[in-house]
Write a structure and sequence with these properties.
single chain; about 60 residues; about 10% helix; globular
Length: about 60
Amino acid sequence: MGDQVVLHGSPGEVELVADPEINTDDWFVTEYGGGIVILDSEMGSVFLDDPHENDELDFVSRAAE
């Protein structure tokens, strides 16, 4: 979490990752099968259930450790 991204042209940050193999009881996993939440500078928190298929999401950089 904390990776920097661009979503629909505005900067954002990965706020939550719900992985079905790790977070089996997580609400996002039980409802949607997993996904990520992006904290977007313009839209607020945005849930993406299939971020790999979203053409408007671009990875920028990893979070500082």
